[in-house]
Amino acid sequence: MSTKLSFYGAAGNVTGSCYLLEIDKQRILVDCGMYQERDYRTRNWDPFPFTPADVDAVLLTHAHVDHCGLLPKLVRDGFRGRIYCTPATVDIARIILLDSARIQEEDVKHKRRRHKRAGRTSPFEYEPIYTVADAEATLSHFSENEFGETLTLGDIEIDFHVAGHILGSASITLRIPNGKKSRTLLFSGDIGRWETPILKNPTEFEDADYVVMESTYGNRSHEAQESVPGAIADVINQTCEAGGNVIIPSFAVERTQEVLYHLSGLLEQGRIPHLVTFVDSPMATRVTEVFRRHLHYFDKDAQELLERGVHPCDFPDLHLCRTVAQSKAIKHIKNSCIIIAGSGMCTGGRVKHHLASNISRPESTVLFVGYQAVGTLGRIILEGAEKIRLFGEKHTVRARVEKINGFSGHADREELHRWIDALDRSPRQVFITHGEPDSSRALSERISRELKCPATAPAYKDSAVLE
Question: Residue 330 gets which letter from DSSP?
């Protein structure tokens, strides 16, 4: 079978994952993600660089918006096939997509009013990328495929493997017939970390002919995971002593649950005071409920906690905010508190309101616990901006800004090396994606040098024929 692989996202940047496989007459899309970096966001409104109606199926690695966020647009523009992913990914993607559509509709309404008052115009942001109705229409296209269950599309055999990044996240292998033999194409998805809380370790593979591999941290090492609880405790204790609030921009999926896991442990050990803690994210609340439905994805330590009757994501003084009124009431809390709110890169959601209330308070702390893509508000704050714009107004950054790298759900440089080095033989070729240029370059050079195989970082819209 002739196979062509095209890179329509996460090429030269970190978000917008989207790869098109053309295998004889079949068209299979792997991921269909939204761009979050400011320099690339206009692509979200652009027509797809392929015809959605021609795509036969989508394989979804996981439910982060940069991997699934444009699926409603794909369906609206003509896709009629099935979207295959694990059961947990189906549940989380439903939440993510509906929330994304709702936020888009609300943001457009606010921008129209604000820009009209200011006499400004916008080239593309007066319309949402897609609507809630588009997201709802997408839900019927999902099909569950559990780990260990082989999916067959024509003559192609497809398997989902534990990736360890978020609940239900997968690396995907495709075995493509090649005469009497077959070729194996491996998509890493987002590779998780070993020995992180709650989730099982990433799968290590023995064989693959071609690999599409993420490189988010291809040139960087994380802090030791053992240092995470101590770093959190230091931030909370120092901020509480100063009389401020701890604002934690956090992804609703996995990262919020990991933060709660660590807070629960620190409270049990008496290492932090009992502060009122808010999860101000209806989506994070719904995702936590998904965790309760898929306990078989938990690792051994989390399973042991559950057997003792302790849920790893719960503790006294934890409040889950579901309504806007509950969210607005937080700013009236006089004593120090912890506020965990979406979105993780501060690109939208309720965290922006809490930043507006706290970013100019030197006694408060903004604590980042996840990757901040180039051009996002989170990255701008992290890189030391003196002023930021929130809701059309400028705010001086006086709050303490901290980042804990050991929290990352992405494998770091050494863990990426471990993952690719597990192969018994060198692949024919490795395609390095989902990373900023320096990160992708470092990983591709190392793979080329150590594994003695071609490793390249494709550009947007590049294609490769897999011989």
Answer: G
Both tokens of 465, joined, read 């024929």
Round the average pLDDT of the chain to a whole number and report it.
92
If you ran DSSP here, which 8-state letter would residue 435 be given? Answer: S
CB burial of 29-49 (b: ≥16 within 10 Å; e: otherwise) equals bbbbbbbbbeebbebbeeebe
Q: Where along the chain do its domains lie? A: 3-220+409-465, 225-407
Q: Quick: pLDDT tens for 35-77.
A: 988 789 899 999 999 999 999 999 999 999 999 999 999 999 9
Contact of 456 with 431, CB cutoff 8 Å = yes
What is the DSSP pairing of strand 142-144 with strand 26-30? unpaired
Specify the pLDDT at position 124.
Answer: 54
The answer to whether residues 408 and 259 touch, using CB atoms and an 8 Å cutoff, is no
Instruction: Calculate the alpha carbon distances from 233 to 225, 228, 243, 251 in Å.
Output: 14, 9, 15, 20
The Cα 198–Cα 446 span in angstroms is 31
The reported pLDDT for the residue numbered 122 is 58
Give the model's pLDDT for residue 106: 85
Q: Does a cis peptide bond (omega within 30 degrees of 0) precede residue 343?
A: yes
CA-CA distance, 96 to 62, in Å (whole number)? 11
What average pLDDT does the segment 321-335 reach?
89
At a CB cut-off of 8 Å and minimum separation 6, what does 370 contact?
Answer: 249, 250, 251, 255, 344, 345, 407, 408, 409
* DSSP character at residue 168: T
C-alpha 261/C-alpha 274 separation (Å) is 15
Pick left, alpha or beta for residue 198 (phi over 0 → left; psi -120 to 50 → alpha; otherwise beta). Answer: left
Options 3.30.70.260, 3.40.50.10890, 3.40.50.1480, 3.30.420.40; CATH for 225-407 is 3.40.50.10890
340-364 burial string, b = 16+ CB within 10 Å, else e?
bbbbbbbbbbbbbbbbebbbebebb
Q: Smallest Cα–Cα separation from 162: which of 147, 144, 178, 143?
A: 147
Q: What angle do CA 427, 432, 435 make, to 5 degrees?
A: 155
User: Under DSSP, is residue 205 helix (H, G, I), strand (E, B) or coil?
Assistant: coil
Q: Tokens 């021609």 appear where?
A: 54
pLDDT digits (tens, 9 = 90+) for 133-153: 999 999 999 999 999 999 999
> Which fold does the domain 3-220+409-465 belong to in CATH?
Metallo-beta-lactamase; Chain A (3.60.15)
pLDDT of residue 125 exceeding 70, the answer is: no
Give the pair of three-digit tokens for residue 323. Answer: 């309504």
